[in-house]
Amino acid sequence: MNNFIYNIPTKILFGQGQVRNLGKELLPYGNKVLFLYGKNSIKRSGLYDEVVKTLSENGISFVELSGVDPNPRIETVKRGADLCKEHGLEIVLAVGGGSTIDCAKGIALQAKYDGDVWKDFYEDQKYENLKDSLHVASVLTLAATGSEMNGNSVISKLDTNQKLAIGSDKLRPVVSVLDPTYTFTVSKYQTAAGTVDIMSHIFEQYFSPDKGAYLQSRMMESLLKTVIHFGPKAYENPEDYEARANLMWASSLGLNGLLSCGKKNTDWATHMIEHELSAKYDITHGVGLGILTPYWMEYVLSPENVHRFVDYGKAVWKIPGTDSMDIARKSIEMTREFFINLGIPERLREIDIDDSKFEEMAEGATCRGPLGIMKKLEKKDVLEILKMAL
Amino acid sequence: MNNFIYNIPTKILFGQGQVRNLGKELLPYGNKVLFLYGKNSIKRSGLYDEVVKTLSENGISFVELSGVDPNPRIETVKRGADLCKEHGLEIVLAVGGGSTIDCAKGIALQAKYDGDVWKDFYEDQKYENLKDSLHVASVLTLAATGSEMNGNSVISKLDTNQKLAIGSDKLRPVVSVLDPTYTFTVSKYQTAAGTVDIMSHIFEQYFSPDKGAYLQSRMMESLLKTVIHFGPKAYENPEDYEARANLMWASSLGLNGLLSCGKKNTDWATHMIEHELSAKYDITHGVGLGILTPYWMEYVLSPENVHRFVDYGKAVWKIPGTDSMDIARKSIEMTREFFINLGIPERLREIDIDDSKFEEMAEGATCRGPLGIMKKLEKKDVLEILKMAL
Questions:
Q1: What percent of chain B has pLDDT over 90?
Q2: At A15, is the secondary structure helix, strand, or coil?
Q3: E strands of B278-363, at which residues?
Q4: In this complex, do A242 and B16 lie within 8 Å of one another by their Cβ atoms?
Q5: Which of A18, A182, A219 to mutate to test the interface with B (most CBs of B within 10 A)?
Q6: What digits encode the pLDDT tens for the residues A274-314?
Q7: What is the pLDDT confidence band of residue A211, given thresholds at 50, 70 and 90?
Q8: Do B242 and A12 count as a contact with CB atoms less than 8 A apart?
Q9: Residues A67 and A212 in one domain
Q10: Whether residue A19 is found in the same domain as residue A94
Q11: For position B211, what pLDDT does the model report?
Q12: Does the structure show a pLDDT above 90 at B384?
């Protein structure tokens, strides 16, 4: 097990009705809030009113910013930061899914930063400049990205077709409300995409050729089993509280840092390739991941790392037998079938993506160097995976 | 899944050499420390000097209090609190195992409390009085209790033969150093006892008749598998870093609150009975648990809760078959065998405990009402379990 720092101070208020406790939990951090959300669905569902109520009851004033996009834009970050500066706001409260929370982190950063956060952080990763930010809090309405409990933020810049990520402990939300009933209205399509996204986050941390971090691997298998058990249940019966609750808590635990603590290395190649896809085509992140993942698995599988697939196949899919390569291939096939059964397309062409930008995407994905750790992927490898997925 | 609050802000510095970062991590909380430890073994091992070095390098002054006992006494708590008041100390730094850390929490509480913490908290659980305490930090030298990451404290009062526990988020250490190499010198006996203690904490949370909290159950199984995999390795080869590291991190995750978040109820009967044993006979906690646990399992097993034992037997011990009661009984037998192979006695008589205080202990364990949730244990039930274990 490698040395690590574990530091996950986000306070989680989990369960039905917890939003009523949000206001008093925010008070230690300030009483002027930027209330950030996406579409008006939170008004229809009544969540908007519940948030306003808990803020008002605790004497917290707020300025609203709505219209955050699914792949949130740097322009929204700038607009939010300007509002925070103009009104002297202290907390950015995101009410929505991962996109809204990611956007809130960008805003919290830009509001306390004189330079351009896009250039200095998202492009150049100059974390040494990250001295201060506003506090971030969230009310989660979609189980997928884990942004409610981690310091990651992915922002897009459409004019340059870029989608870039940052990550810092300083950007972790101080408080997040996780109420599974808010995800009852999530569509089948987005439920499937969220399920894939949660699994993909775990895959990215699980699949590495090193054999250490036994405890972490077993925990990841337990989370994968949970998501595989409940994903189809939530897909079939959107108001299954137990399914929604397990998916929601798995999404947070899957990417809050706990699983990778002590691991020598993690992969993240599939995410880097998918970011190119959704930057170019504005597709749903989880759908891109669902298409790419089985092809990535097939491409990287080798005698040197087959043991990870064997662990995965046996623990998660209960595949019997002793032939390692056979178990590995079956585990990939079962992963693909699971995604297909959730309505995830099998190939890029099914979502109208052709090979015209493959070169550009392979170039973009590897412009900071080769990707991943299961197999180091150069531009040609990324191109090959995209072609397999076509 | 039940509603819950997740709030685990303890920062963990994990791995070899991390103690060198302790001083700077303490600075946000103060620069006057009570340096609390047990025996002089930390002087022989060099850990004492390392702690002094990191404190000195960061301008942190300290007052020492040594001689904390394995079942720490309320008298030590009082002495420590007096020292803190006298010298205006801000942080209680425990360097040792769970006993030392538990003692530090009592001290931190008493140092900021005008009344008698023994009476008001350990006896009467008046948590509404818990407004303030000093900060607690730790350097862990024994993987067992999880005290390094939770708000629990168990203290003994020898003149009345009492051993009582409290638990509050406010007593969680702010920083804990977990360096597996500090456990290389832990004896086989204490390694076995620690392994049992970690498993018992998970059992107490795992074994409940309700069928919810799927995710939590799978995570607990993953931790049990880890401890069962590495306990014997550490027992056989005390300097196996990977084994010591997995046990250490499992001990923290096993009782930091994560596993019980969302569970409807947990049991803790075995712990309550064992506290009576070690209060009366000053035995090692993990040894008492190791003797009692299989008998408790046999006593509580019923058609209503057999499904929990089936989950346990299949996931953790890979027991085949379809007869539930058969799988359950085999899982209990395998648990017993595992403990015996670690040198844990099978019966109380092997550690010179007879039935002379059984009545008194059964009375003491149930004086606040019946124990547990797998089966509600009255005084007569506790007596029966003690007799089975004789």
A1: 94
A2: coil
A3: none
A4: no
A5: A219
A6: 999 988 998 999 999 999 999 999 999 999 999 999 999 99
A7: confident
A8: no
A9: no
A10: yes
A11: 82
A12: yes
The CATH number of whichever domain residue A296 belongs to comes to 1.20.1090.10
**Nearest C-alpha in A relative to B179:** A3
pLDDT confidence bin for A161, thresholds 50/70/90: confident
Minimum Cα–Cα distance from B222: chain A residue: A218
Q: Is A267 among the domain residues?
A: yes
Are A159 and A259 members of one domain? no
Res A224: pLDDT: 98
Distances (CA, A) of A330 to A122, A217, A225, A335, B89: 38, 20, 16, 9, 61
A174: containing domain: 11-182
The residues, any chain, with a CB within 8 Å of residue A28's CB and separated by 6 or more, are none
* Pair (B171, B204) in one structural domain: no
Q: What separation, in Å, do the N-terminal and C-terminal C-alpha atoms of chain B show?
A: 38
Asked whether residue B156 falls in the same domain as residue B240, the answer is no
Are B111 and B85 in contact by the 8 Å Cβ rule? The answer is yes
Residues A138 and A201 occupy one common structural domain: no
Shared domain for A145 and A292, answered yes or no, is no
Distance CA B389, CA A379 (A): 66
**Residue B156 pLDDT grade (very low, low, confident, very high; cuts 50, 70, 90):** very high
Which three-class secondary structure string do you get for A53-95?
Answer: HHHHHCCCEEEEECCCCCCCEHHHHHHHHHHHHHHCCCEEEEE
Look over chain B and give the mean of its residue pLDDT values, rounded to a whole number.
96
pLDDT at res. B299: 98
DSSP letters spanning B73-98: BHHHHHHHHHHHHHHT--EEEEEESH
How does pLDDT run across B169-191, given as a tens digit for each residue? 999 999 999 999 999 999 999 99
Q: Residue B137: give its domain's CATH number.
A: 3.40.50.1970
My answer on whether B28 and B121 are in the same domain is: yes
Of the candidates A182, A214, A240, which is a domain's last residue? Answer: A182
Using DSSP, state whether B338 is helix, strand or coil: helix
Residues of B in contact with A206 (CB under 8 A): none
Q: Total domain count for chain A?
A: 2
